[in-house]
Amino acid sequence: MDGIGSQAERAEILSNVIRNEEVWSLLRSGNEEGAYEIVCRTVKL
């Protein structure tokens, strides 16, 4: 994660991903690629 400077920024991004219901819904349905795409768009690296 070279584009994210601090530990606090990394923690905030991870927290946002963990709380993202769309990501979890896709994972529950077996759509790992879709969940990954959402995470990548959310993080914007």
Descriptive report:
By secondary structure, the protein is an all-alpha fold. It has one domain (7-43). The chain is built from three helices and no strands. Helix 2 (21-28) packs antiparallel against helix 3 (32-43). The termini are close together. 4% of the residues are buried.
Give me some keywords for this one.
single chain; mainly alpha; 45 residues
- The number of helical segments is 3
Shape: elongated
Helix residue percentage:
over 70%
How many distinct beta strands? 0
Return the structural class: mainly alpha
Report the sheet with the most strands, covering strand number, pairing sense and barrel closure: none
Order of helices and strands: HHH
End-to-end Cα distance: 8 Å
Summarize model confidence as the mean pLDDT.
Answer: 88
Please give the oligomerization state of what you see.
Answer: single chain
Global Rg: 11 Å
List the helices and strands and how they pair.
Layout: H1 7-18, H2 21-28, H3 32-43
Helix pairs in contact: 2-3
Offer a quick outline of the entry.
The chain has helices at residues 7-18, 21-28, 32-43. The protein is mainly α.
